[in-house]
Amino acid sequence: MKTKVYLAGLIQGSVIDKCIAWRKKIVDHYTNWKDTGKPYEDLIFLDPCNGESQVSDDGLSSNLPKKVILDKDYNAIKKCDLFIGNMDSFGVERPLIGTTMEIAFAYSFHKPIILITNNRVYQEHPFMSQMVSWYFNDVDEMLNAKAINQFYKAWHNAQY
User: From CA 124, how far away is CA 119, in angstroms rounded?
Assistant: First the structure.
């Protein structure tokens, strides 16, 4: 059985390399499973960024109509098994409205939520703190904790 993991976070043209990099780091980690050179085939990553670079510098427009962006992300979250959100703004001032909405979608669909942030507001806000299953300060901390593995093993009774 495949486990689908949604990767939410900032998508903005002025920092698109950083928006893509943290997602790629997670996917690459599971592409070279346990340094075998083989992918961990039971994980599917749903990436709303999907390597796109046709996003405006301010992140408010792209080559896709806005309604299409909402519809595709909403439905991907509905289908995912695990939601990972990264609240890093990479130094831009734009609030993470889309990511926050996606967290609310995930919560309404009863998806476990992993949140990557060292921002006290996201960690302690009454709403956010009750929706999030597990917090990490950065991607490396999450990968080292084997957070995705923990959820996968719970769902599939995997022994590894």
Answer: 9
Q: How many CA atoms lie within 13 A of 57 on its CB side?
A: 1
What is the rounded CA–CA span in Å between residue 37 and residue 42? 15
pLDDT in tens, 81-123: 999 999 999 999 999 999 999 999 999 999 999 999 999 999 9
- The three-point CA angle 20-53-10 to 5° equals 45
Q: How far apart are CA 43 and CA 3, in angstroms?
A: 5
Upper half-sphere CA count for residue 82 (Cβ side, 13 Å): 21
Say if residue 64 is exposed, middle or buried (CB neighbours under 10 Å; 0-12, 13-18, 19+).
Answer: middle
**Three-class secondary structure of residue 158 per DSSP:** coil
Residues pairing with 9 in the sheet = 86
Distance of CA 30 to the CA centre of its chain: 14
The domains of the chain, with CATH numbers, are 3-123 (3.40.50.450)
Mean pLDDT (the chain, rounded): 91
The tokens describing 10, both together, are 């900032």
